[in-house]
Design a protein that fits this description.
Layout lengths: L2 H38 L8 H6 L3 H14 L6 H37 L3 H27 L3
Length: 147
């Protein structure tokens, strides 16, 4: 197997996962702070905040899907294309996860404070997620043109 294909596949997964790590980290820190405020005020701590914290993790799966598709490529010249696609797709997906986590952090604070708006918060996170889904789908289309 062409090592460039492997490099592109790993770049895609790694950058996607890095974004998920940042995003879930931001959201988790906000959830912990929101729970602390609830405990200090003798209010029930909303368990649903874990759903907000976990939202950015799906981008790692999108990077993994692309990684497996790239690893299945064996066409002549596919290596350079996979490196470019892997880097740019991984960045797009990873940045989606990072900013989804920042939005989830704000949603954690708002949900814990008001107890309202959860559907709206998940809707906003879904829109940010769409960037990652579009990136994955369009990269799959581009990979289909190789070989």
């Amino acid at each position: 197997m062409d090592p460039m294909i492997v490099a592109g596949a790993i770049a895609c997964l790694g950058l996607s996962a890095a974004g998920s790590a940042f995003g879930t980290g931001f959201a988790a820190a906000a959830a912990v702070g929101a729970w602390k405020k609830c405990y200090a005020a003798n209010k029930p701590a909303p368990f649903i905040l874990l759903g907000l914290v976990g939202a950015p993790i799906t981008q790692t799966l999108y990077g993994m899907i692309l990684m497996f598709i790239m690893l299945g490529k064996s066409a002549e010249g596919a290596g350079f294309a996979c490196v470019l696609l892997g880097i740019f797709a991984g960045l797009g997906i990873g940045l989606s996860a990072l900013f989804q986590g920042r939005a989830a952090a704000a949603a954690c604070d708002a949900q814990a404070e008001t107890g309202q708006g959860l559907t709206n918060y998940f809707g906003a996170l879904g829109i940010v997620e769409t960037v990652a889904i579009f990136t994955m789908v369009f990269t799959i289309i581009a990979l289909g043109k190789i070989g």
